[in-house]
Amino acid sequence: MTWQTRASRTVYENRWIRVEENDVVGPHGEGIYGVVEMQHPAVFVVAVDDDDRVCLVSLERYTTGHSWEVPAGGSDGEDPLVAAQRELAEEAGITAARWTALGRMNALNGIARAPEFVFLAQGISRGADADASQHEEGIDAVRWVPFGNVLRMIAAGEITDGESVAALAYAGIHLDRFA
């Protein structure tokens, strides 16, 4: 049986998300299904320098506390590549000469419509001074970690952001780091 929506209403909306409540009929009968919809797709950037180090940013999340993550953010309606380039410059203060689209994923697909795009950035160079934008973004630190150590950080529970873990998996597959 496929899901059927009988009625839908927006119960909350801001510039980043919309929350809807749906009267549905699904595999288990009738019910209410809440859905969070992102207003724009998100982008995730795995930046890898010539020494095979990955750029991680440290920030304090309201919902989960301290987090090490890959640079990421909303696309604000831009082309995902343009948004990825902007986010890398804002969050890490760097630019990249080579960009590879690694894939598309969905965050929290049981409760959300939140498309995400993952990019690999290589040919890294220091961009404009990012201190002001990093502070505005809530970035506490930028750290370059060897790729193998990043995988150990995931295994040790030091990187817990699911989308960063998935983005790093995309990059690891592309760069053949799991062989």
TrEMBL record:
<dbReference type="GO" id="GO:0047631">
    <property type="term" value="F:ADP-ribose diphosphatase activity"/>
</dbReference>
<dbReference type="InterPro" id="IPR000086">
    <property type="entry name" value="NUDIX_hydrolase_dom"/>
</dbReference>
<protein>
    <submittedName>
        <fullName>ADP-ribose pyrophosphatase</fullName>
        <ecNumber>3.6.1.13</ecNumber>
    </submittedName>
</protein>
<feature type="domain" description="Nudix hydrolase">
    <location>
        <begin position="38"/>
        <end position="167"/>
    </location>
</feature>
<dbReference type="Pfam" id="PF00293">
    <property type="entry name" value="NUDIX"/>
</dbReference>
<dbReference type="InterPro" id="IPR015797">
    <property type="entry name" value="NUDIX_hydrolase-like_dom_sf"/>
</dbReference>
<keyword id="KW-0378">Hydrolase</keyword>
